[in-house]
């Protein structure tokens, strides 16, 4: 009961978890040491992911690291979760790619800042409590839909297809791949498949060293030592910066803001839902309760900071958060160490990133897309009542064909209408019996 009272009081005050832990003397020297080790390990996991997610989003590689550094630090420092790891995620790839294609990098930065402001407002208005009312069928549907769209995005680099202008929509991408299948490169495909196999079987040999790092290092060495004709980050992106840019504010205008309202809402909704779902998962792992509203505020501030330094949208990364807990992280210090470690890696080792094959990054994200899809749960949900199955499939399909906001809106509408109809039917049957 005492813990529940503390949680209720913290939630009303919206205090960052780090500050609360200091006040309650929950941080021992031993735990801080464990958090530092966990933060370093998570940074190693986040390194190839951040680069791969940036490239797949249509921006240069370093912008993924900038996002993990600035957004990741603020989300941990000010967040409502003890163990949340923030940064770029696979859920944003298709959304960011579409915004960059339509509005350019300047438009993405503006939309991300707007989304950050929306998230802060949502947190201050206590909107974080609304996550409890989102049906599980909707969250499973759009999460698995996002996984499919991320997988589709990776086909180009896995097959080594030469396409200058890839459409933003999933169906358009597939059509583009089919039309350009004659540019298929066998060597690129072999390297990519080899990386996928390494990431599948390496954990059976060693679970300490991340499989993605092993695949990245081995493929980079093989491609460069044997001078294989495979596209690398350096051959595609000639100007990669290893320096941290100065913060800059994009130019604003009423017309620009109005045109970016829908993308900003999409970013805010996805960042809010995914981060809070990640918090729920981590709560179960560490037997704690997060402050959903404080988390939204931190997510908002993290996205604003990321955008000001030229980064992309960020949210809570479920897989990295889970890795943090599994490696001993139990306070926001691990997330902050993760961000600082990435900063040091970017400054010192970024020039070496030019040698990384593009196909290994696609292989890493293919594994990510498979892991983020809730396939087992979707299969089990097919035995639910028809109204729930319709909500699940509608959200799943619409996420792939259109976008997240439309999918969630339609899924929620079907859920609400179906339950109202069901309730009226039950009430009518009760009246007939009476």
Give a quick precis of the structure.
With 434 residues, the chain is mainly alpha-helical. It has one domain.
Structural classification: mainly alpha
Query: What count of helical segments does DSSP give?
Result: 19
Helix content: over 70%
Spans where pLDDT lies below 50 across 5 or more residues:
none
Give me the side-by-side strand order of the main sheet: 1-2
What is the terminal-to-terminal distance? 43 Å
What would you call the shape?
A: globular
Tally the beta strands.
2
Series of H and E elements = HHHHEHHHHHHHHHEHHHHHH
Largest sheet: 2 strands, antiparallel
Number of domains: 1
Q: How much of the sequence is in beta strands?
A: under 5%
Radius of gyration based on Cα positions: 22 Å
Mean pLDDT: 92
General description of the model:
This protein is an all-alpha fold. It has one domain. Helices cover 72% and strands 1% of the residues. It contains 19 helices and two strands. Helix 3 packs antiparallel against helix 14 and helix 4 runs antiparallel to helix 15 (332-349). Keywords: Membrane, Transmembrane, Transmembrane helix. The chain crosses the membrane at residues 36-55, 67-100, 107-127, 133-152, 183-202, 208-229, 260-281, 301-319, 339-368, 389-418. It is a multi-pass membrane protein.
Write the layout of secondary structure elements.
Elements: H1 2-13, H2 17-23, H3 29-56, H4 62-78, E1 86-87, H5 93-124, H6 136-159, H7 170-179, H8 186-205, H9 211-225, H10 233-236, H11 254-259, H12 261-286, H13 292-308, E2 315-316, H14 318-326, H15 332-349, H16 358-372, H17 375-381, H18 386-401, H19 404-433
Antiparallel strand pairs: 1-2
Helix pairs in contact: 3-4, 3-14, 3-15, 3-16, 4-13, 4-15, 5-12, 5-13, 6-7, 6-16, 6-17, 6-18, 6-19, 8-9, 8-16, 12-13, 12-14, 18-19
